[in-house]
Amino acid sequence: MTEASPARANMGFIGAIVAVATIGGFLFGYDSGAVNGTQEGLRTAFNLGDEGLGFTVGSLLIGCFIGAFSAGRLADVMGRRNVMMLSAVLFLVGALIQGFATSQGVFVIARIAGGMAVGAASVLSPAYISEVAPASIRGRLTTVQQIMIITGLTAAFVVNYFLAAAAGETTATYWAGLEAWRWMYLMQALPAAIFLVALFFIPESPRYLVSKGRDDQAHGVLSSLFGRGVADAKLQEIRDTFSQDHRPRLSDLKGTNGRVRPIVWAGILLAVFQQLVGINVIFYYGATLWQLAGFTEDQSLQINIVSGLVSIAACFITIAVIDKIGRKPLLLIGSAGMAVTLFSMVYVFANGTLDPAGNLQLSSGLGIVALIAANLYVIFFNVSWGPVMWVMLGEMFPNQIRGSALAVAGFAQWFSNYLIAQSFPVMARELGLAVSYSFYAISAVISFFLVQRFIHETKGKELEQMQG
User: Fold this and answer.
1) Residue 6 falls within a domain, yes or no?
2) In terms of Cα–Cα distance, which of 85, 115, 302 is closest to 195?
3) Euclidean distance between the first and the last CA atom of the chain, given in angstroms as a whole number
4) Domain range enclosing 183
5) In sequence order, what are the beta bridge partners of 173?
6) What CA–CA distance (Å, rounded) separates 94 from 299?
7) Is the pLDDT of residue 442 over 90?
8) What is the pLDDT of residues 342-383, one digit of tens each?
9) Are 156 and 311 in contact (CB under 8 A)?
10) What is the model's pTM?
11) Residue 221 — φ and ψ, nearest 5°?
C-alpha cells in the first residue's frame, strides 16, 4: 500500500483545495444559523404560530436530506466538483429569494433549495477532502470542514446581532426599506458567489476520475498532489478498489449475502445519533431557548456568539489530536461528556419556575449553571461528534460504495436533523425543557455503547484499505 505522506505531498496545493472545499462548510453553517435570529421576523411577516414557525424553520432540513441523498449519487455520475458547483448556485439563489420573499410559500421553496445546497455540501466537502488528502493528516484536514461550519454559524450569529442592534430589533426596517431579518439571509449571497467562482480553480477527485475510466486525468491530479512517483502506484491501487464489471451504483451497498453491508449501518448509526443528542436545538433555536430560560433577546444573541466561538476553539483541539489518538476515542469522550452536561441542564430546567404566562424562569444561579453546562456540552460535541462524524463518513467507506453510502448516511443525518428541529418547539411547549433534554441526554448515553460496539478505527488508513 503506497502511502501519500505529507513530506512528499504538495501541501500548498492541497491546502488551497481544502480552503475552497470548506467554503461549502461555511455556507452550510451560515445557512443553518441565519434563521436563529429571524424567528420573530418570520412570525410577523407570515403570521406564523408555533407549528408554522417549526415547519418554516425546518423546511431547510427537507432540502438538506434531499440534497444529501441526491448529491451522494450525483457525485458518482457528475463528479464531486461539479455537484459542489451546483450547490453553490443553490446557495446563492436560495439566499436572495429568502431575503426578498413576500409569502411563506415562496420563502419555504427558497429555503428548501438552500437546504439542498447545505445537504450536498455537508457530504461532499469532507468526502472530497478525504479523497485528496494524505492518510496521516486526513483527519486534521477534514476537521477544517467542521471549523468552517461553526465559523459560518458564528458569522451568522454576529451578523444577526449587529443587524438587530443597528435596526433596533429584528423586525424593524433597515437598509433599502427591508427589515433587518431579511438582511440576515441576503448577507449569505457574497460567500456563495465566492464559493462558486473558487470551485473553477480546483481539480476533480482522482478517485472519481478512476471510477469513470479517466485514468490519464486521475494520474495528472495525483501527480499534482503527491508527485509522479507516488501517482503511478496510487493510481493502480485506486483502480483495484473499483469493480471491473460496473461503475459504482446504489445496489453496491448490499453484500454478497444480499443484505446491507455492516459498514453502511455503522455510517447510519453515526449520522442519526449526531442529531439525537440535540445539538441543533441550540444552533437553530438558541435565541428562543435562552429567552425561555429568562434571558433578553439581546442577551440571547450574544450567548449564541459565545457558543459559536467556544465551538471553534473546541474544533482546534480536535485538529491537534484526531490523527494521534484516533476517531473512536474522541467519539466515546464526547458521548460521555454530552450525557453529563445534558443531564445537568435537565436538572436546571426541572428546578425552574413558571411565570403567569407559563414561561420558564430561572434564578440567577440556575441561569449561570445552564449557561456553563450548555457551553461545556458544545465543547464536548465539537471536540467529538461534530467533526468526527463528518471525518468518518468521508473516509470509512470503500471507494466502490463511497458515493452511495454517503447518500444513504447523509439522508439519515439530515432526516434526523429535521425531526429534531420540527419537534423541539412542540416538545418544549407540551412537555417542558426538562423532559425534552432528558431525551437528548439518554440518546448521548446510548451513543456511547453503540460506538463501543459497532465503530471501528480508521486513523492512518489509506482509503484503499477501507473494508466493509
Assistant:
1) no
2) 85
3) 18
4) 11-465
5) 179
6) 29
7) yes
8) 999 899 888 877 777 666 677 778 877 887 888 899 899 999
9) no
10) 0.82
11) -65, -45
Phi, psi dihedral angles at 296 (to 5 degrees): -75, 170
Q: Please tell me the total count of domains within the chain.
A: 1
Give per-residue burial for 367-402: e unless 16+ CB within 10 Å, then b. bebbbebbbbbbbbbbbbbbbbbbbbbbbbbbbbbb
User: For residue 372, what are the contacts with CB-CB under 8 A and spacing of at least 6?
Assistant: none
How many Å apart are CA 290 and CA 285, to the nearest integer?
9
Contact between 17 and 222 (Cβ < 8 Å): no
pLDDT at 208: 94
Reported as a single tens digit per residue, the pLDDT across 192-240 is 999 999 999 999 999 999 999 999 999 999 999 998 888 889 999 999 8
- Let me know how long the chain is: 468
Residue 2 forms part of a structural domain: no
CA angle 255, 261, 267 (to 5 degrees): 155
Residue 242 placed within a domain: yes
Pull the grid cell for residue 329: 476515542
Distances (CA, A) of 112 to 90, 94, 415, 420: 10, 8, 13, 17
Q: Identify the CATH number of the domain in which residue 193 sits.
A: 1.20.1250.20
Asked whether residue 4 is assigned to any structural domain, the reply reads: no
Share of the chain above pLDDT 70, in %: 93
CA atoms within 13 A on the CB side of 315: 25
The three state secondary structure string of the chain is CCCCCCCCCCHHHHHHHHHHHCHHHHHHHHHHHHHHHCHHHHHHHHCCCHHHHHHHHHHHHHHHHHHHHHHHHHHHHCCHHHHHHHHHHHHHHHHHHHHHCCCHHHHHHHHHHHHHHHHHHHHHHHHHHHHHCCHHHHHHHHHHHHHHHHHHHHHHHHHHHHHHHHHCCCCCECHHHCEHHHHHHHCCHHHHHHHHHHHHHCCCCHHHHHHCCCHHHHHHHHHHHHCHHHHHHHHHHHHHCCCCCCCCCHHHHECCCCCECHHHHHHHHHHHHHHHCCHHHHHHHHHHHHHHCCCCHHHHHHHHHHHHHHHHHHHHHHHHHHHHHCHHHHHHHHHHHHHHHHHHHHHHHHCCEECCCCCEECCHHHHHHHHHHHHHHHHHHHHCHHHHHHHHHHHCCCHHHHHHHHHHHHHHHHHHHHHHHHHHHHHHHHCCHHHHHHHHHHHHHHHHHHHHHHCCCCCCCCHHHCCC
184: Cα within 13 Å, side-chain hemisphere? 34
Give the per-residue pLDDT at 272.
Answer: 96
